Amino acid sequence: MAKIENYNFFINQLRELGFVFPSSQIYGGLANSYDYGHLGVLLRKNIENFWADFFVNSNPNAFFIDSKILLNPKVWQASGHLDNFVDLLVENKINKKRYRVDHLFEEFFPEVEFEKLSQDEIQGYLSQIQLLENAKVEWASPKKFNLLFPTYQGIIEDEKTLLYLRPETAQGIFINFKNLLRTTKNSLPLIIAQVGKSFRNEISPGNFIFRTREFVQLELEIFLKPDQSENFFQNEIEKIKNFLKKLGFAKNSIRLNYHKKEKLAHYAKATADFEYNFNFGWGELIGISNRGDYDLKNHSEKSGEKLEFVDSATGKKFLPHIIEPSMGLDRLMLAVLEECFCFDSVKNRYFLKLPFILSPYKVAVLPLLKKFNFLAEKIWNELISQKISATLVTSGSIGKRYYHQDVIGTYFCITIDQKSVENSIVTLRFRDTTEQKTLKIDEITKFIKENFVNE
Fold it and tell me: Which GO terms describe its biological process (predicted)?
């Protein structure tokens, strides 16, 4: 998709239309924190529901779990987060701004593997950066920064227990492996899905809702026999490609980036990122990792609980390997909005070219005059009863109502006029083309279901 020329206008549109608002706005806001309005909630639910239908509800081996945000802190010790979930942070002493060292190396020294450098060597490279964001630079010494959010449980100060807000939903799945195996199908492959909030004390959140400290994850953990993991890794990559295609992304908007071995996370045997060409540049949209048996092995050793799978055919015991496709709902929503935000220069209008499955409202029912409201309400009620998301708008000029529905992504409008009362005929106006079609009132639901619901 072409870049949005005026990104501030785009963000302001989303605020004015009710997709997203700055959080705590009446108190001056909270940096990089956003609330979702009605349209934002509807769009997010539609994305989440499509993800669930695509990856979970259509697969007999897939099941859901909802684990807690607060877990026993031993979980994060076993998972490696207390030791490894850190970024190297450096501060510009002149303007007090802080930066992630890995981001600076990616920008200024992309060929250098900074992870293998000593502290002095890192400082040497950083000293070569004399100007950053139009500001002079004097670097402090880099420091490690843990991304976990600490909190406390208990009411007596001396007896409070240190806990952490979960930085990912995955660990809640791993520690429930035995429960999930026992209560689902007791065989592999076993796919466990979870939707939930995670929290990361990011050093440099930003780019609107792309990177925030509080976000929703859509995660799958696929438990497999070890010799199946490589094939499943590639199969899931192909499945994600199809998922993104159905969401309406153009081929040139997405690229696949395989991580080099030295760039892998502490738990990963292989990782690939699907990146989207956001207005600010390429950014991670969906990650997929082959986690091997790292997680079950660590939790088994640290907890003393055997997390092996017993093959009923051979009697062999082994730790399953895990493939993890993971995505953030907030940044996926941002990518969808950027991809679908269009300007029609011929008709001088903006419109949100969302696929039918994602449109917050599939239909807007628009009575031309007040005297047609009773019939409009009847049609709206019929649509709602058939589980077709619809809105009823009775005021304003028809042109302004069309424009508003176009820009919030409503797939088509139904106009009610004198012909509707006399001959039971309505006019359908399509969002993307503005073309119009007449239809009998009793054919509306059938037309929508046959042509759009199962597209």
Answer: glycyl-tRNA aminoacylation
For residue 211, the 8-state DSSP code is B
Nearest Cα residue to 393 out of 383, 381, 403, 401: 401
Query: What residues contact residue 265 under an 8 Å CB cut-off, 6+ apart?
Result: 84, 271, 289
- Segments making up each domain of the chain, as ranges: 7-65+162-339, 86-146, 361-453
33 and 213 Cβ atoms separated by less than 8 Å: yes
Instruction: Show the CA angle centred on residue 251, arms to residues 250 and 253, nearest 5°.
Output: 65
* Each residue's pLDDT tens digit, 253-270: 999 999 988 778 778 899
pLDDT in the model for residue 203: 74
Q: Rounded to an integer, what distance in angstroms lies between the CA atom of residue 329 and that of residue 215?
A: 7
Say how far apart CA 308 and CA 181 lie, in whole Å: 11
H helix and E strand count, the chain: 15, 25
Token readout for 147 is 């991304």
114-152 burial, b at 16+ Cβ within 10 Å, e below that, comes to beebeeeebbebbeebeebeeeebebeebeebbbbbeee
* Mean pLDDT of the 422-447 span: 96
Q: What is the pLDDT of residue 8?
A: 93
Residues 316, 319: Cα–Cα separation, whole Å = 10
Residue among 155, 180, 163, 296 at smallest CA distance from 229: 296
- Asked whether 298 and 252 are in contact (CB, 8 A), the reply is no
Question: Of 174-188, 200-214, 308-322, which gets the smallest average pLDDT?
Answer: 200-214
Residue 454 has a pLDDT of 61
pLDDT at 157: 64
What residues are paired with 292 via a beta bridge? 322
Which of the following CATH numbers is that of domain 7-65+162-339: 1.10.287.70, 3.40.30.10, 3.90.226.10, 3.30.930.10?
3.30.930.10
**DSSP per-residue codes, 107-135:** HH-TT--GGGS-HHHHHHHHTT--EETTE
Query: What's the residue count for the chain?
Result: 455
Please name which of 243, 189, 226, 220 lies closest in space to residue 60, comparing C-alpha atoms. 189
Q: What pLDDT was estimated at residue 2?
A: 60
Q: What is the rounded distance in angstroms from the CA atom of residue 81 to the CA atom of residue 79? A: 6
On whether the CB atoms of residues 173 and 67 are closer than 8 A, the answer is yes
Residues whose CB falls within 8 Å of the CB of residue 224, separated by 6 or more in sequence, listed in order: 188, 189, 232, 320, 321, 322, 323
For 107, half-sphere exposure in the C-beta direction (CA atoms, 13 angstrom radius) is 13
Query: Is domain 361-453 classified as CATH 3.40.50.800?
Result: yes
In this model, does residue 104 exceed pLDDT 60?
yes
